[in-house]
Amino acid sequence: MKKEILINSTEYERRVAILEDDLLVELQVERPDSDRMVGDIYKGIIRTVLPGMQAAFVDIGLPRAAYLHSSDIGKDYAASYDHDSEEEAPAEIIRKRRREKIEAVLKKNQEILVQVIKEPISTKGPRISSEISIPGRYTVLVPDDDHIRMSKKITNWSERRRLKKVAAPVRPEGFGLIIRTEAEGKQERELRADIKRGLKLWSKLKKKADSSPAPALIHKEADMVVSMIRDVFTDDIERVFIDNKADYKQVISFTRQVMPHLKDRVELYKGTQPLFDMYDLETEIDRMMDNKVWIHKGAYLIIDQTEAMVTIDVNTGRYVGTKDQETTIFKTNIDAAREIARQIRLRDIGGLIVCDFIDMYSRENRRKLYEEFQRFFKPDRAKGAINPVTEFGLVEMTRERVRPSHLQALSDPCPTCGGRGRIVSKETMATKIERWFLRAKAAGKFHNFNLVVSPHLAEAMIDNEANRIARVMKIHKFKINVVRDTTISVQEYRVYDAETNEDITEKYLA
């Protein structure tokens, strides 16, 4: 598979695109007004401990307090357990963690060193952990720990054993180690150099933490370009194209220190055509805002994102196939699974996701679809879990969410519909206005009105044969002057007393 990384920078935005076989599969965007926080380390102050939620709110110097759950508090008693998986722990360790009450560990006004593990999303502040980690190219240092863990993406058991054997003698005293996927095939010398850089950084930030009054930012994670190069630039990346000289020099400096054998694959783009235009990416990026995604021969996806979950519906559309119905549906579902995996990675969708595939009668086809769906997600860097296909064609899955999706980050809620995606019909609004005047009639206080509405709503109420406003005036003996206002939403209206020009809309709302 051909893989490339493209880095585009302007004065107000930096973007990193990952391509697989010339197809955009991942996009990261950084803007000055939306600084990335994941990985940042703060010295904070516990402001509130909530035993009922087993959580605490921590002041780290931001407008919104950070959220610390009891499951994100480092435990000394878990440090002595040496296991191979980043995720797994024996049942007795898990039970012990659950028994440890947060009120027994944290107290109000206590100072604590924490790291951001999830960006602020919507009205929620950042999520933090007191288990600090210092990421390197091949390893992650975990202070106040003494176990060695292995990336679950290293699936070869002989390689896992070899890496554990290599890592054991180089693990610093008082530190745990997580062996990253990029360490596969690496030797002790490379791991030792990586750990040395992590120890140097930890020493520096520890001194700053000891001398800084809380709340304070202790360490800022590497910027998006360097962190992406550190995490993504592996031997299977054929080329890194950069269109900005400053970014190019930064990447060259980093690769020279950490991965010199890949330095020659970094190129400075000097073409006159914009870099992303040359790869025809701008159109693809614009399509990320669409909820309809075409797949193959007329089939398509409908992607709906809400605050609680994301639903993805598969439709055959105009595709009728050439063989029997079951075969047609199976082929459509496989194509849809491939595109769903790409869209989820591309749009950086996280949380709970429900995919509604087309119903299949064959259990064997449902099993094949599940296995293929899992395979399509193997390149995904985010952690996730996928459940088998149900008899109704549903697949429930979760995906790690550390920051808002691109839809949330790159767009604003519709000022008319409030983010629902639909607005109240003109017929419904006209009926609401008629009810308003019915209440005004019951009150009997006003008789002469100015009704301010959008031109579209005015058209529905008076510019037709029914002329609903004329009917209201006739029934209630009112005088109503309709004012067309292009600045008002079709979902709004204002009513004024024509004699005093007082806004009386709120007086007779339901």
Features:
Aminopeptidase; alpha+beta; OB fold (Dihydrolipoamide Acetyltransferase, E2P); six-stranded mixed sheet; Nucleotidyltransferase, domain 5; 510 residues; globular; 24 strands; five-stranded mixed sheet
Total number of beta strands? 24
The coarse overall form would be globular
At the fourth level of CATH, the homologous superfamily of the largest domain is Nucleic acid-binding proteins
Name given to the CATH architecture of the largest domain = Beta Barrel
Radius of gyration: 29 Å
* Structural class label: alpha+beta
CATH topology value of the largest domain: OB fold (Dihydrolipoamide Acetyltransferase, E2P)
Distance between the termini: 61 Å
* Fraction of residues in helix: 25-40%
List unreliable stretches of 5+ residues: 76-98
Helix tally equals 15
CATH class of the largest domain: Mainly Beta
Task: Please describe what this structure looks like.
This protein is α+β, with helices and mostly antiparallel strands and 510 residues long. The protein folds into four domains: 3-34 and 224-282, Nucleotidyltransferase, domain 5, CATH 3.30.420; 41-219, Nucleic acid-binding proteins (OB fold (Dihydrolipoamide Acetyltransferase, E2P)); 289-400, 3-Layer(aba) Sandwich (Aminopeptidase), CATH 3.40.630; 426-508, Hypothetical Protein Ychn, Chain: A. The protein has helices at residues 76-79, 91-99, 102-105, 157-167, 188-211, 224-232, 245-258, 275-278, 282-287, 325-347, 363-376, 406-410, 426-443, 455-462, 468-476, and strands at 3-9, 14-20, 23-30, 41-50, 55-59, 66-69, 111-118, 127-129, 134-135, 139-143, 148-150, 175-179, 216-219, 239-242, 266-268, 292-294, 300-305, 309-315, 351-356, 384-386, 394-399, 448-453, 479-484, 494-497. Strand 16 (292-294) and strand 17 (300-305) form a beta hairpin. It is globular and about 95 Å long. The chain starts with a strand and ends in a 13-residue tail after the last strand. The model is unreliable at 76-98 (pLDDT under 50).
